[in-house]
Design goal:
2 copies of one chain form a homodimer. Chain A is an alpha+beta fold. In chain A, 32% of the residues lie in helices and 29% in strands.
C-alpha cells in the first residue's frame, strides 16, 4: 500500500490522508506546470537513509525554484509519521521508498503543497540492481558550461519537470536498453535520468573512483557523495570529471548509483560490452549498504 | 469560478466535478513527474477559438510523449460541457481560458488522466496585452539543430514540464522585465516561455511578417499560424527564420503572440527600446480578433 502524509501547519507531525482518494487540487501548479521539487530516499527497517543529505538538497532545489517550503524539522516529522503508518500496514517490508514532494501550490494561493509518500520498492528496481543495465548514451542538448551562466535552467535542482528524463528512459527501452547516460553537446558525460554515473579503475591495487564534476550542470548525487566519503576511508582515490564516453569504455567498471536502486552495474554502452567487476561491485555495495 | 470536467469513458460529455475539492491522485505522474501535456485556448461567448489547431497540437504532443489520450471528439464534447457550466456560473464573462490537460495517469495504472478546466482570463494577462512588454533575451541552452536529432528532448511537444519556462519568467520579473524571449546556444531567436515571437517590417508599403522557423525546436504556435494565414490574405509577405536578436532590434515592430494574451507588443529587449507601431498592432489585432 501507499501511505500519504501532507505537511500541514495545523498538524505538527503531518496529516495522514487516504492514498486511495484524490488529494490534490487539479489547479495545483505541480500538476499543471511541473512546478515543484522532489526527493526519493530509501528507508530500511523504518529508518530513512541519508535524510540530512536529501533534506539539504531539497532546500537547495527550493532556493533554485524560489519556492518557500516547510523546514527540515517538519519534513522529518512527516517522514517518521509516514514510516510508522507504512510499518503498521506492511510489517513484512523491510525496505520502503520515501518520496518528498513540494509544489508551488494552487495557482494564485501562494502557498506550497507538500507531502510525503511511502511505498514499497518496485520489484523492477530491485531486479535491475541484480542483473545490471544496458545503457544508451543520449544527448542532453546542453553544453557542460551553461548551468553556471543560466540559473533559470534550474540544472542543479531536482524539479518535478521530469518529462524529458522519463522520455529518455522510454527511448532506451524502445531500443533494447534499460537506462540512459546523458552527454553534453560538447561531448562530456553527465548523468543518468535518475542516477549518478560512477566508474572505477583498479590498477596495480590502486583503486580510483570517478564521477562527472558537478559544474557540468548535473544533480549532486547524495549516494555518490556518501559512497565517495566511505570509499576514501577505505583507501580509494577519488576523482571528478570532466569525463568522456571513452573514459567509461576504458574503465574497469561503470555503475549508475541512486538512492533506491543503489549501485547498479552497467553491462554495455550503446551495445558495446563493458568490463565489469563483481569484486568491485561487492566491495562498493557493502559500503552502500552501510549508509545511514 | 473554475469549472472542471474530467474525460471519462463512462460519461460521454465528460464528468463535471467540484473544482473546490481535490480531484487528482497524489500519485498521478502529472504531479510527480510533470509527465503529460496541455493546451490553453480562448473561448469567446461560449465558442472555443482555433479548437481544431489546439486538438491537432495536443495529438502531436501525445505522439511525442508516446501517451494515449482521449480522441478529439471526446475533448470537444468535454470543452462544450465546460463552457456551458462556465456560462451558467459566470454569465457576464464573455471570454474564458480553456485548459486541456492529459497526464500519464496514476503510476502503474497505465491510463491517462485527462480534464478540461475553464476559468476567467486573468486581469494581468489582459493588462499586458494593452500595455506591452519589456522583454529579456535568455539562453535556452539548446542549439537550434538538436530538436531534429534528439526526439527524447520533446522539443516540439507542449508538456507539463514547464518549470524552466516558469523560472525564466520569474527571472525576468526579478530583473525589471515582464517576459522572456529564449535564444539558442548558437545565437538564434527561439520563442517565449508561453508565446511565439513575431516581427514586422513595413518598407515602402510592403509589409512582411516574420517568425522563427519550427526546425529550431520551438512549439508550433497556433496563433502565429492562424495570423500568418489571415495576414497573407491581406497581402502581407510572410517569412520564417533563422532570426537573430539584431533582426528584432531592427524590425518595425515585435510582438509575442499566444492564444490567451493574443498579440502583445514588445516595448524593449534587454532594456533597449524597440520601434513599435500602433497602426500595425491594430491591423494585426483586428485579424487576431476574427480567429474562430
Amino acid at each position: 500500500m501507499t501511505v500519504l502524509v501532507f505537511l500541514d501547519p495545523a498538524h505538527d507531525d503531518g496529516r495522514v490522508v487516504d492514498a486511495s482518494q484524490p488529494q490534490l487540487m487539479a489547479t495545483d501548479l505541480g500538476a499543471t506546470r511541473g512546478d515543484g521539487l522532489f526527493e526519493s530516499l530509501l528507508a530500511v527497517d523504518g529508518a530513512p537513509r541519508k535524510e540530512r543529505a536529501h533534506l539539504d538538497r531539497l532546500a537547495s532545489s527550493a532556493a533554485a525554484l524560489d519556492l518557500t517550503v516547510p523546514d527540515a524539522a517538519a519534513w522529518s516529522r512527516a517522514i517518521r509519521t509516514g514510516l510508522r503508518e507504512f510499518a503498521a500496514a506492511e510489517p513484512d517490508q523491510g525496505h520502503a521508498v520515501v518520496k518528498l514532494i513540494a509544489t508551488r501550490g494552487v495557482e494564485g494561493a501562494g502557498r506550497a503543497t507538500a507531502w510525503v509518500q511511502v511505498a514499497r520498492v518496485p520489484d523492477a528496481t530491485l531486479r535491475q540492481r541484480e542483473t545490471g543495465l544496458k545503457v544508451l548514451f543520449l544527448e542532453r542538448g546542453y553544453d557542460s558550461t551553461v548551468a553556471q551562466r543560466a540559473p533559470w535552467l534550474l540544472m542543479g535542482a531536482k524539479t518535478l519537470s521530469y518529462a524529458v528524463n522519463m522520455a529518455a528512459v522510454r527511448y532506451a527501452k524502445a531500443h533494447g536498453a534499460d537506462d540512459v547516460i546523458f552527454t553534453s553537446s560538447d561531448g562530456k558525460v553527465l548523468e543518468g535520468p535518475t542516477s549518478t554515473v560512477l566508474l572505477a579503475y583498479d590498477r596495480d591495487g590502486r583503486k580510483t573512483l570517478l564521477t562527472p564534476q558537478l559544474e557540468s550542470g548535473i544533480l549532486a548525487g547524495t549516494s555518490q557523495s556518501a559512497l565517495f566519503a566511505a570509499a576514501k576511508e577505505q583507501g580509494w582515490e577519488l576523482g571528478y570529471g570532466p569525463l568522456e564516453p571513452r573514459d567509461l569504455l576504458e574503465a574497469d567498471a561503470v555503475w549508475l548509483i541512486s538512492s533506491i536502486r543503489l549501485l547498479a552495474p552497467v553491462l554495455s554502452l550503446d551495445g558495446q560490452e563493458l568490463r565489469t567487476s563483481s569484486a568491485l561491485t561487492a566491495e562498493l555495495s557493502d559500503l552502500v549498504d552501510r549508509f545511514v
